[in-house]
Every structure is written in structure tokens, then in C-alpha cells.
Amino acid sequence: MNVRFTALAAAIVVSTTGLAFAAPTQNTTIAALSNDRGSDRNLRNVRRRLERIIDQLQRDQRDYGGHRVRAIQDLQQARLEIDAALQADAAH
User: What's the rounded Cα separation, in Å, for the pair 90 and 7?
Assistant: First the structure.
């Protein structure tokens, strides 16, 4: 069960962070060019997804050999990095 949870947590982190860095579609590229807030919007969307994932993991009653707690900590760190990116973007 620990292996399955670890694989699930890794998939969540990869899919979540992958969404932040996925190649933009033509529509998002146009939006980013016409409005400099395009990447800002993407970061905010990913942050909201992270919030939901963290909440789901925090409500889970199982420990999974400590992997759940470590995944929560990693996701919280990712959230802090996104917050820092948003602050840097706002400063420029």
C-alpha cells in the first residue's frame, strides 16, 4: 500500500507541477501576449489545485508509513514557491 500511495503522491506532484509548465496553447499564448497576467493566472490556478490536494491529504486518516505527511510538506513547499513567484511577478 505504501508503494501505491508513493506512486500516487508522485503522480499528483508531477501532474500538478507539469500543469504549471505545460506548453501553452495558442489561446493562452495570445492571452499572455495581450495581457501580461497570463502566467500569473496560471500560477494562481495551480496554487488553487495545490490547496485542494493538500486539503484532501490532510483529511486522509491513514499515515502510509509517513509518506502522506512528507507529501503534504512537499506540496506546502511548492505552494510557498508559487507564492514567491507571484510576488516576484508582481514586483516586476
Answer: 35
